[in-house]
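Subject: sequence -> structure tokens, single chain

Hey, anyone have a minute? Need the predicted structure for the following. Not urgent.
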Amino acid sequence: MQMFSFFRRLFGSDKLSSDEDNSNNEMKYLIVGLGNIGPEYADNRHNIGFMIADELAKQEGVKFSMSRHAYHTEFSHKGRNIHLIKPTTFMNLSGKALIHWMRELKVPLENVLVLVDDLAIPFGSVKIKPKGSSAGHNGLKNIEQLLGNSNYARLRFGVSDNFPKGRQVDYVLSSFDRDELPYLPELIDRSIAMIKAFCTIGVELTMTNFNNWKVEK
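Reply:
Had a minute. Here:
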């Protein structure tokens, strides 16, 4: 009887430890800013994910450090442990960094948010979406391929589609227009507010509270 009680206490303790680990993992979030490394890409539309990540780190007073497949930093917000990465794999292999850091940190897929430029949304709007197709975006295509599904949240930063037919690559790899630049700080701040909302109230409420907003020009 004493031996039975011992094992019951032992197994009960193990279960409690496992529950605590799961609870801790549920409070972890992975925010993935998409972009290409290198100064020649720094202010491109395609690098808006990096721009948002950089400003978020700056506002939180944390700095990125080079790690495996990505620049990484972390901070706490309302009890959540938020990990922020900028993949160093270039856009077309973004999934490699996302998968590595999900596994390394044991972050559940529902706590992953990808920051991405979106041609289908006009400049001035930022929307969050719980899942969806890659819509031809090479970074999202690679993530979907390596995950085996598209059931991950993404913050879609509108960059419009004001380019001649066949010039999409040139367009996303160019800088924002001069008349767009004054609005970037407000849009990036809005994106940061949406990231924090995603981590605290979830994707559905964040959609409800933020998706109909657009910058006043």
